[in-house]
Design a protein that fits this description.
about 60 residues, mainly alpha, 3 helices, rod-shaped
């Protein structure tokens, strides 16, 4: 699950970078602010993986 979330976060950040590089209007620059959402998704994947590891260690 965390790998899937990680991949989604990376894809979102790459998509936003592509939009930002081709921005020709203000709305495209606003859409580029969505990079933060990709970073949050990336961090969520890391947190999910760490919690999963902690639960496995606790139950072992």
């Amino acid at each position: 699950m965390s790998a899937f979330i990680l991949i989604l976060g990376i894809l979102q950040m790459l998509g936003v970078i592509a939009v930002a590089l081709g921005a020709k209007s203000a709305i495209h620059e606003i859409l580029a602010c969505a990079f933060g959402l990709g970073a949050i998704t990336f961090a969520l994947a890391i947190i999910t993986a760490k919690v999963d590891d902690a639960l496995k260690a606790r139950n072992a």
